[in-house]
Amino acid sequence: MAEALDDERLADVLGELPEDLQVTILGTLDERRAADVLEVMDPDDAADLLAELSNVDRNRLLELMEPDEAEPVRQLLKYSEDTAGGIVTSEPVILAPDATIAEALARVREEEITPALASQVYVCRPPSATPTGRYLGLAHIQRLLREPPSSLVSGVLDDLEPLRPEAPLAEVTRYFATYNLVAAPVVDAQGRLVGAVSVDDVLDHLLPDDWRERARRG
């Protein structure tokens, strides 16, 4: 079945499987195709999968990936999987300070943006790829919908204290509960946005590894 699926569909399937099955299926693929599939996976899912491999296999696949696709994954692999940095999504909606609210709303309408990540936009100095330039703040979509489209998104920023990449999962969970969030920024010691943690990522790491199988069994 894996051979019959195209790279994008296989990447979607792998993201929903237990890690041991992900490793097994990835191991059946030609190395070049395995790298292609990892490129189209979300960076956090790709990092989780690569973390299960040996150092030799992990480094070989990273070398086969396109440099622009491999770099976010390398960044995520620096952090333990039970920290904010280890479960972060490195491709949230990031805007420059001179972006308008109309531009922000257009971005969150994009089909590939998940509902959780569409709840906020993050404003940073260039560069806009993570880790970004200096993180300035976030804007909630509810606030954006109440403002004139021509206004600058930097004028409606929330000064919510971001998470640090080293924050343990228990701290991340308390943070979400305290502020009633579905996504949150993760900012490193240099003030750069590393990415965003979404509530579904938190739940995935709180639930048992086999929770999907348990649900299917009823």
Sum up the structure in keywords.
218 residues, mainly alpha, MgtE N-terminal fold, CBS-domain, 2 domains, 3-stranded mixed beta sheet, 11 helices, 5 strands, 44% helix, globular, Mg_transptr_MgtE_intracell_dom, CBS domain-containing protein, CBS domain, CBS_dom_sf, MgtE_transporter
Descriptive account of the structure:
It contains eleven helices and five strands, in the order H-H-H-H-H-H-E-H-E-E-H-H-E-E-H-H. The protein has a three-stranded mixed β-sheet with strand order 1-2-3. The protein has helices spanning 7-15, 19-28, 31-40, 43-50, 55-64, 67-77, 101-108, 141-145, 169-179, 199-206, 211-217, and strands spanning 94-95, 120-124, 135-140, 183-187, 193-198. With 218 residues, it is mainly alpha-helical. Helix 7 links the parallel strand 1 and strand 2. The radius of gyration is 18 Å and the shape is globular. The chain folds into two domains: 7-78, MgtE N-terminal domain-like (MgtE N-terminal fold), CATH 1.25.60; 94-204, CBS-domain.
Quick description:
This protein is mostly helical and 218 residues long.
Work out the radius of gyration: 18 Å
List the quaternary state of the chains. single chain
CATH architecture tag of the largest domain = Roll
Strand content: 5-15%
Question: What form results from the Cα inertia axes?
Answer: globular
Could you say what the CATH topology of the largest domain is called?
CBS-domain
Order of helices and strands: HHHHHHEHEEHHEEHH
Biggest sheet, in brief?
Answer: 3 strands, mixed
Mean pLDDT metric: 91
The structural domain count equals: 2
- N-end to C-end Cα span: 25 Å
What is the helix tally? 11
**CATH homologous group name of the largest domain:** CBS-domain
Strand order of the largest sheet: 1-2-3
What is the CATH first-level class name of the largest domain? Alpha Beta
Content-based structural category: mainly alpha
Find the count of extended strands (DSSP E, 2+ residues): 5
Q: Can you give the helix content as a percent range?
A: 40-55%
Low-pLDDT stretches are none
